[in-house]
Amino acid sequence: MTPAARRDALRELLRAAELDALLVTDLVNVRYLSGFTGSNAALLVPAAGERGTRLATDGRYTTQAAAEAPDVRRVIERACDRVLVVAAGNDGIRRLGFESGHLTVDAHAALLEVAAEKGKGVELCRAPGLVQQLRAVKDAREIEALRAACAAADAALADVIEAGGLRPGRTERDVAADLEQRMRSHGADGPSFDTIVAAGANSAIPHHQPTDAVLATGDLVKMDFGALLGGYHSDMTRTVVLGRPTDWQRELYALVAAAQAAGRAALAVGVEVVAVDAAARAVITDGGRGPEFSHGLGHGVGLEIHEAPALSATGAGTLASGMAVTVEPGVYLAGRGGVRIEDTLVVRPDGAELLTLTGKELLAL
Ligand code: ZN
Ligand code: ZN
User: Fold this and answer.
1) What are the residue ranges of CATH 3.40.350.10 in the chain?
2) By C-alpha distance, which of 225, 205, 201 is closest to 213?
3) What confidence tens digit (pLDDT) does each residue in 283-337 have?
4) Ligand 1 midpoint to CA 296 (Å)
5) Distance from Cα 299 to the centre of ligand 1, integer Å
6) According to CATH, what is the number of the domain 3-135?
């Protein structure tokens, strides 16, 4: 899908919301709708048609904006959002939506001031999440980008295991740096978020930051990591055990693996996101560990590591074909250890396709 086709899709949402235009200030959304990747920009998308669409950025990006967004009229001005409010007023726009989930209170106040002084009757209207709604459904090129990002993470973990990188004596930090370096050598621009490596009792901390803690025989080692490639993020968690797993470790792993399988099996077009969370959660609750599964089941992934839809008990909406989501149940026993298993998948008409292909049997190293 070209940026122009995405703007067309946005126009339908604008008309349904009775907005004359949307002022896009979230840079990820600016990128999605225009192709422009600079660090200061705003985009005006009118509902009536492509005429009047403008990308504003500052003088550092004149050349880059022309190269990345050649089909959009460009305005070079440091105060990107304000200049577009004035432009909207000049074009006769009245109801101008703004990304109320993104704009700061101060930025909103500045826009109100400009609208009052030079906006010729522009009314600023809250319009949260419109572009996020479009972004939740990926096109074929985006899915290929996600697939490549997932493949880099799969290859990095295989390399680390192959090289004996998960062994007693190394630190959590060593393993995290190793994974990140190997993702880069497999084509990643970098990690898609700060790599989590958590050994022993630390594995019971869902978002543990790697420390100088030393891996020891008998530890569960939980690794949550992903690659950023071509702007797209991958996300995967695997938990291994160093040495022979004990009974409680086997049981814990089997419970989380069964919940993860149930969550994956529940992914289908038209299913409520809350039902996917419930399918996995029921397995863990039946296993007596409900309170120890302390987070949502998963999230959308794409140009951002966390995006719509949220697969959680408080999520809203249903799954559509082309949505890319994670399924990541975990059970965390404070002071002992925890297990999380996470994949990135794409919802398809006939189920879900795995993008992270690393095996999920309990690996004893
Ligand atoms: Zn993750
Ligand atoms: Zn995740």
Assistant:
1) 3-135
2) 201
3) 999 999 999 999 999 999 999 999 999 999 999 999 999 999 999 999 999 999 9
4) 12
5) 9
6) 3.40.350.10
